[in-house]
Amino acid sequence: MSKFDTYFLMKPAEVAEYVKEKLDIFDNGAALECKEIGDGNINYIFKVWDKNSDKSVIVKQAGPTARISEDFVLSTDRTRIEAEILQMEYDLAPGLVPVVYKYDDVMNTCSMEDLSDHTIMRTALLKHETFPLFADHISTFMVNTLLLTTDVVLEHKQKKAMVKSFINPELCEITEDLVYTEPFNDYNGRNLVFPPNLEWVTKELYNDPDLLLEVGKLKFEFLTNAQALLHGDLHTGSIFITQESTKVIDPEFAFFGPMGYDIGNVIANLIFAWANGDAEIKDLGEREAYCSWVEKTIVEVIDLFNEKFSVAWDQHVTEILAKQPGFKEWYLGTVLRDTAGVTGLELSRRTVGLAQVKDLTTIADEKARLRAERICLTAAKKFIKNRETYQTGSDFLQTLKDAVTAFPRD
Amino acid sequence: MSKFDTYFLMKPAEVAEYVKEKLDIFDNGAALECKEIGDGNINYIFKVWDKNSDKSVIVKQAGPTARISEDFVLSTDRTRIEAEILQMEYDLAPGLVPVVYKYDDVMNTCSMEDLSDHTIMRTALLKHETFPLFADHISTFMVNTLLLTTDVVLEHKQKKAMVKSFINPELCEITEDLVYTEPFNDYNGRNLVFPPNLEWVTKELYNDPDLLLEVGKLKFEFLTNAQALLHGDLHTGSIFITQESTKVIDPEFAFFGPMGYDIGNVIANLIFAWANGDAEIKDLGEREAYCSWVEKTIVEVIDLFNEKFSVAWDQHVTEILAKQPGFKEWYLGTVLRDTAGVTGLELSRRTVGLAQVKDLTTIADEKARLRAERICLTAAKKFIKNRETYQTGSDFLQTLKDAVTAFPRD
Lengths: 410, 410
Description:
- Two copies of one chain form a homodimer.
- By secondary structure, chain A is α+β, with helices and mostly antiparallel strands.
- Chain A has two domains: 3-112, Phosphorylase Kinase, domain 1 (2-Layer Sandwich); 119-406, Alpha-Beta Complex (Aminoglycoside 3'-phosphotransferase, Chain: A, domain 2), CATH 3.90.1200.10.
- Chain A has helices spanning 12-22, 77-92, 121-126, 134-147, 156-165, 169-178, 198-206, 209-224, 260-280, 284-316, 327-352, 358-361, 366-385, 393-406; strands spanning 32-36, 44-50, 56-61, 65-66, 69-73, 100-104, 109-112, 119-120, 228-230, 239-241, 246-248, 255-257.
- A five-stranded antiparallel β-sheet of chain A has the order 1-2-3-7-6, sandwiched between helices. In chain A, strands 8-10-11 form a three-stranded antiparallel β-sheet. In chain A, strands 4-5 form a two-stranded antiparallel sheet.
- The radius of gyration of chain A is 22 Å and the shape is globular.
- Chains A and B meet through α5, α6, α8 and α11 of A and α5, α6, α9 and α12 of B.
């Protein structure tokens, strides 16, 4: 019998005790300390470390309600989904996600590798740091976790069992509302439009029927296309990074959806990083260096994805009809189309929707922020409406460049 | 305690006893008789009736293996799927499916309305009977069961729960192999090509790379597009019919897939009925009358579907982005595209694949059968390759007519 045989929400001292009893990580003589380190909205995150060695572990525990408010009752199934997905992603893309030591369905915890030596990528990008290996790492992560979980590769009955296991109604609903609906009609009155941009946003987003029609098509793609096991929230806040290492975290939005959703999120959040650098870096040389790196990274993420996708397809394809000449090219074309569409959705929703990005909101100068937002939204519309035309990294970059040209710096 | 608290495979006398104990259909003084009436491959089907009244019931029991061979171990979950789907379809399209009296998850039985006064539609069509209300009935069935189970209408979390509940890997695999793969490459060596047609089929189906590419695209649509709750096997052998009544049965292939799959199956099997009438009816006037009725029915099934779909959409749409002007028309266009594609797949697989239709195989004259098969396969290829172009019933009929023109009667 153990006190951890029945669920309760742990305090730090109890987490240390829990780790000692349940995990095989620390020596018998370890002097464990524990601190709650997370300030997220949903889960409780603890770091446990041994003062006598360099060993440490992260314990994430799900409460029956959200951390920020007891009003939000959430299914604790999200911890199972997160732990299983991390383990699966680790198998598919070793080294690009944290190691999971243990998932405990009684205590609703996931114990995993401590990444305290890494930084959240968005935080680092806001300091205009660059990460030369990021495009290589993230393109490998995406090709491996996405292509290898499609019907191109998986035995179809096995894939259907996985689809069933990862149906994720509550978290998909958040995406359906915040990404695929509200930014374009402020349906729930929750949008946060930067005040001087309100008239422009109303005209360009809310009153463009052609845009709404295309967003609707993309929404149904998200609702119905069980293509690949997505991360589901692959922005720069879900990535831990150093100069040498990239680790994707927080897959609680995972489900089987269109793979362009993940890729588009990466591209859009790189564009936000570009917009921040362009607005906030005063030194011309520094600005040029940082923005060029972001541009190069946008191009490389797409081009490396295309390249590795093609190689991995040839290596792993099992579905006989997917081996038909021309099929791979057609399939990749649909992925890039969806990627462009989602790039536009993410650019829109993080600019005017409920969950905004610091890349834009921290731009101090009002005029500069106005310009940055308009660049992002102008590119967004083009990505959504012209999504059939994107094939290469430079196609994606060109849309950013065209939008920048439309809003010259004062 | 009852002997029916533990599963066993029943004999007819036990089925009568079971019905008396478990169902509230018969009076206390009923004199029940029971006979096994099914000769299907998979399940055991019994009819129980009261000699003292006109009451009767059908009891379908699933064994742990297929009825025809103990080698095929099948999940008994198919009985739950069938019973739940029939009940759901009855709610959506009252009167167009049999009433389910009871689903019993211990005995793996589904007890339902006895339709002995109806005939299997394929059997009746082989006698060249006509059914003036069929197009009206089946178009209502399809609009109600399909459109009302999409994300256009259903709350998205509820729909996801349904998708999860009806994931159907074993039976989908049968379709993926027999409909979407083997007809076009004889991959498993199971095709049954009418010998004088072998060379022609090899050239026209197996050696047409453009066709295989399009079939591959359709296969991935079937594998990934969780659009609506399909019947999944909606051919004329799954329909009980009289002059006044149409009842759709046998939904064990049900799952969430592209709705064109059901509609295309109906159209293709009407084309087979046409081909049989055209080849087998010797009297010119009778032939003309029967084939004209089939042609009119093909046109009406599509046109009534379109019409009722549009009305039902306006009545039931809940998804806000689906209300955007132009969205309904775009969505229906994708449904008709898929319908044309599946019409072509079903025409192909029932002509050359493992599970053939009597409409073709019973054509006695070899030349006439050869011609009928070539008409069906020529139309099939056009339906698949040109599937983007179909909008109205007459578009569908024209493809049959063009194929007929290409193979003049001697």
